[in-house]
Amino acid sequence: MSYRQTLSVEAAAAKAGFSTATGYRIEADPRLPSQKQAPRGRRRPDPLEAYWEADVVPILQAAPGIRAVAVLDELRRRHPELNPNVRRTLERRMSAWRALHGPEQEVIFRQEHEPGRLGLSDFTDTTALGVSIGSVALDHRLYHFRLAFSGFEHAHVVLGGESFVALAEGLQNALWALGGVPKEHRSDSLSAAFRNLAADAQQDLTQRYCSLMGHYGMTPSRNNAGIAHENGSIESAHGHLKKALDDALLLRGSRDFGDLDAYRAFVDQIIGRHNANNRKRIALERAVLAPLPQRRTTDFEEKIIPVTSSGGFILRRVFYTVPSRLIGHRLRVRIFDDRLECFLGTTPVATLRRGRPLSENKGGHVVDYRHVIHALRRKPMALLNLVYRDQLFPRPAYARAFEAWRSQGDDRRACKVTVELLALAHECAGEAELASLIGADLDAGRLPDPAELRRRLRPQQAAIPDVAVELAPLTIYDELAAIDVAADAGLELEVAP
């Protein structure tokens, strides 16, 4: 056809390499052979012809979002003779019907973000990763912060639920790691943080959130409740982060960590790799971020709580033990996501692990046996029915020893021996070593004996070495003084050996 623009039909056909007759045929009908083919008809009868207009279309009009499998089940209930192998045909026909007659769908509008404008926060549940601390499953989630433009990320391990304390601590950690502040902070509706709070508490939490935003000079904004894609710049990143963590755990070969700090360092390492890949865009955005304030602001809640005669206090349905010296005093307790910091006036007196209630109807206990062991030695039988007895044992071996002694039928002896074992662990500062010795005795079929274990834990007495000290003669100081005088005078002296 390109030759035909300047040449005759005969010449163009000759140059193209085919006959003149073919040239005239193309001249009469320039369509391609594929365009001349008639549409192929059905090769077999339509299996849904008898049911589509009468049954399927009314169902789709009444419930446009219904699944094909549900429609097929209804059709087979109405028409038992229908072949069940028509599912794929039904799915294709329903998809085509929705494209032509279905309801309008929601449209996602892609956004272009300017540097330094928007930072986003959200929580994501990571329990499915199967991480454990000391072989105990870790029920946790991650606070996730991300810059919309550069993709800078920060993650903070959260042990409790979605709370203002977790948000404030994680957000401030992210901003200080970033080294700057974006103009706007976007979060979800924070419904989980406000759940089960009274109206006054909700108002207080709102004011504290506004104060946090004001301290850093950020404009707060929220997406509508239940509309996750409005926070899409971080919602989609949740899946990528959890997949990266899962892959790294598979390469590590173990999902168990020695302590929580080791797991947090592992998460920081994965986040650091991602940020290193985006370092150019992050550097570009850092240049336009607002500067950080001179200091952090409050990222904890504070309560004034009295210490009861039980040797502790109750905070949010969890009982915490403290040293008995504090009974009768009022402590100022700072509540963080993973810990409590207790102050007597302005003096720090204890840092406790944050506990959670076991259920809606049952509280929890955070017990340190060192706080009560001195009183328990005077009243060992109190161990028998102690409400937090199971939480008192620092390791499973101590609980095994208690049950082994109780199986002998003497509860008094069992309580006395177990309390002595706990006291021995406290005095020798060898809780783990003593637990291994107790476990070895129980595995060998022996009941642990505190006196024998105390002897085995006693440090070996080493002989004091005989050190001979040779004193230098005092005349050497006169010779040193004479050397200094001669050096000042520029003379040289010979010193006797």
Protein model, in words:
By secondary structure, the protein is of the alpha/beta class. Helix content is 44%, strand content 14%. The protein has 19 helices and 15 strands. It has helices at 9-16, 20-28, 33-36, 52-62, 68-78, 87-101, 164-178, 191-194, 199-216, 232-252, 260-277, 279-286, 369-378, 389-392, 396-406, 411-428, 431-443, 450-457, 475-489; strands at residues 118-125, 132-133, 136-137, 141-147, 153-158, 184-187, 219-222, 256-257, 301-306, 312-315, 318-321, 330-335, 339-344, 347-353, 364-366. The mean pLDDT is 86.
Question: Topology, please?
Answer:
Blueprint (H helix, E strand, L loop, with lengths): L8 H8 L3 H9 L4 H4 L15 H11 L5 H11 L8 H15 L16 E8 L6 E2 L2 E2 L3 E7 L5 E6 L5 H15 L5 E4 L3 H4 L4 H18 L2 E4 L9 H21 L3 E2 L2 H18 L1 H8 L14 E6 L5 E4 L2 E4 L8 E6 L3 E6 L2 E7 L10 E3 L2 H10 L10 H4 L3 H11 L4 H18 L2 H13 L6 H8 L17 H15 L8
Parallel strand pairs: 1-6, 2-8, 6-7, 11-15
Antiparallel strand pairs: 1-4, 2-3, 4-5, 9-12, 10-11, 12-13, 13-14
Helix pairs in contact: 1-2, 13-16, 15-16, 15-17
